[in-house]
Amino acid sequence: MLILRIDDRLIHGQVIAGWARPLGIESIILVSDRISKDEWSCSAYRLAIPQGIEFSCVGIKECVESLNESNKKRVMIIVESVQEASDLVDEGLEVQEITIGGLGYREATRQIAPYIYLSSEDIESVVHLYQRGIKVIGKQLPNSPRIDVIKNLAGVTGVR
User: Fold this and answer.
1) What distance in Å separates the CA atoms of residue 118 and residue 87, rounded to the nearest whole number?
2) Minimal CA–CA distance to 45: which of 59, 28, 33, 22?
3) pLDDT band at 145 (very low <50, low <70, confident <90, very high)
4) What digits encode the pLDDT tens for the residues 21-54?
5) Among 1-5, 41-45, 67-71, 90-94, which stretch is predicted with the lowest mean pLDDT?
6) Residue 68 vs residue 140, higher pLDDT
7) Which 3-state string (H, E, C) describes the chain?
8) Domains, the chain, ranges and CATH?
9) Is the per-residue pLDDT at 110 higher than 80?
10) Separation CA 81–CA 30 (nearest Å)
């Protein structure tokens, strides 16, 4: 099982208590070209990971390379933006679905769901993923209702 989650808060209680523990996640990979270069930030995020779950903080290319060499069964990849998720797919990460767990309000964004605000660049990335056959859903927790982001966009932007 591979979960690709977009969450601008990255690693927090909802990720650990709501996703990792109930789903038996064995490895959490924080993927960010920016954060992976900052040893202090990576160490700070590592502190939030419970014992028994592997953690790595890597850039986009390194993530795809390491997953291709890995045989882990339960992995959660967390990125901060839709663009990073799209970049992972463009680098060769194979997923059928991407979950947006939270993208908070920013200037010049549109609300797609109570916890999802997308900029025009985010919308372009979602459409790019959709055109590649990848479903983008909104879902705060595993048992939360699924929000089809592309269908919500169709009502907001006219994207079909």
Assistant:
1) 17
2) 28
3) very high
4) 999 999 999 999 999 999 999 999 999 999 999 9
5) 67-71
6) 140
7) CEEEEEECCCCCHHHHHHHHHHHCCCEEEEECCCHHHCHHHHHHHHCCCCCCCEEEEECHHHHHHHHHHCCCCCEEEEECCHHHHHHHHHCCCCCCEEEEEEECCCCCCEEEECCEEECHHHHHHHHHHHHCCCEEEECCCCCCCCEEHHHHHHHHHCCC
8) 2-157 (3.40.35.10)
9) yes
10) 12
Q: Residue 139 is which amino acid? A: K
The burial of 27, by beta-carbon neighbours within 10 Å (0-12 exposed, 13-18 middle, 19 or more buried), is given as buried
How big is the chain, counted in residues? 160
Structure token digits, residue 2: 């591979």
Q: Two tokens at 73?
A: 């069964």
- The first and second tokens of residue 48, run together, are 């939030």
Residue type, position 55, single letter: F
